[in-house]
Amino acid sequence: MKTIGYAAGSATSPLAPFDFERRALRPNDVAMEVLYSGVCHSDLHQARNDWGWSQYPLVPGHEIVGRVIAVGSDVKKHAVGDAVAVGCMVDSCQDCDQCRKGLEQLCRKGNVQTYSDTDRFSCEPTSPTYGGYSKHLVAREEFVLRVPEGLDLSKAAPLLCAGITTYSPLRTWGVGPGSRVGVIGLGGLGHMAVKLAAALGADVTAISRTKDKEADALALGADRLLVSSDPEAMAQAASGMDLIIDTVPVKHDINPYLPLLDIDGTLVIVGQIGPLTEPSTVPLLLGRRRIAGSPIGGIAQTQEMLDFCAKTGVLPDVEMIRMDQINAAFARLEKADVRYRFVIDMASLAAPAA
Ligand code: NAP
Ligand code: ZN
User: Fold this and answer.
1) CA max distance for the chain
2) Cα four-point dihedral sign 266, 222, 105, 116
3) pLDDT per position as a tens digit, 314-328
4) Which ligand is nearest to the CA of 185?
5) Distances (CA, A) of 97 to 105, 109, 142
6) Of 126, 275, 333, 334, which one has the fewest beta carbons inside 10 Å?
7) For residue 311, is it within any domain?
8) Can you list the positions of beta strands (E) in 210-310?
């Protein structure tokens, strides 16, 4: 199938229109027209090769919502016309202990990422993956989520990465009424963490570098905003949190945040992939505190999160853009100038002639 997307040709080039082909449907494949694509900070990291493993041409996009336009002969879960979604993974081995537990993100053989990866499990010969900044997408049905009735399609896309990446640690650490949750960085992931933690019944502290987002934080469901650049406020908040979700996208110093945890509390890193400023073990040992990490979430839990959001009305705050505004959006994302997630209206990208 001929399609069109926006691709980065190298780590230094802007995104530009890119014609390419989606594979012919295999029996368990679903083809979708992409309606909306969220813009994750990971897309920017990957376009710039910040992590060192980008493959070009690189079509970003792993927060994808669309409609089914065709299904393979064996597909049971989805039918033409269904509202569906794809997140950060499009395949995994389906056979290891992690995949069998529904933890495809932890597949022993490595999951296949939606873009900048190589389709290698169900594809002969192997082929590159291209993401959701494109008119069409083809993926095997196990990795295609159902968008529950009632969820606004124009806002649902960011749930597929920002939503699940923050929902998953909230569930792993058993957050519910009585839990005290801190969220560092009020961006795409951070604002979803605040909304989801509040919807789960937790007491929520948004932790931001300045006071600028205080009114927003309260409107998102936080009980308060703590300014991380204010040492006095940070000292007063010591030992007051059970779980902190750290969404900061760059190398940073976690030492000022560790004392915010109560005894046995955990700071879970979902943001920076790579080095941190050296953490001191003093608050870890003395408070039996922990530092952890967490990647996205499994397919079953992603569906659980979508259903939870439909039930509770949790949706991201989005700013809709056209596809040709993506380079300006990346520039703003880099400056943390978005409240709180860009979503591309894919109708702004004309389909190629058949
Ligand atoms: P984002 O929208 O840019 O938000 C990041 C927020 O972090 C900003 O709004 C800002 O909040 C804060 N921040 C930015 N620069 C900072 C700095 N230099 N020091 C301290 N705080 C800073 O990004 P996002 O889309 O939420 O993504 C966040 C990170 O998560 C990215 O690195 C992304 O690659 C990663 N990620 C990981 C996973 C995973 O599976 N674990 C999944 C998706 C994304 P304030 O202005 O409020 O301080
Ligand atoms: Zn993402």
Assistant:
1) 65
2) negative
3) 999 999 999 999 999
4) 1
5) 12, 11, 17
6) 275
7) no
8) 224-227, 241-246, 261-269, 290-293
| Rounded-to-integer distance, Cα 185 and Cα 207, Å | 6
- Which residue of 88, 189, 245, 340 sits with most ligand 1 atoms within 8 Å of its CB, as the best mutation to test the pocket? 189
| Cα 163 to ligand 2 centroid, rounded to whole Å | 9
Rg (CA), the chain: 20
Closest ligand relative to 317 C-alpha: 1
Shortest-distance Cα residue to atom 35 of ligand 1: 271
Q: What is the pLDDT of residues 32-81, one digit of tens each?
A: 999 999 999 999 999 999 999 999 999 999 999 999 999 999 999 999 99
Residue 234 falls inside a structural domain: yes
Q: What's 109's DSSP letter?
A: T
This prediction's pTM = 0.97
Do 12 and 157 lie in a common domain? Answer: yes
Range of the domain at 44: 2-161+316-348
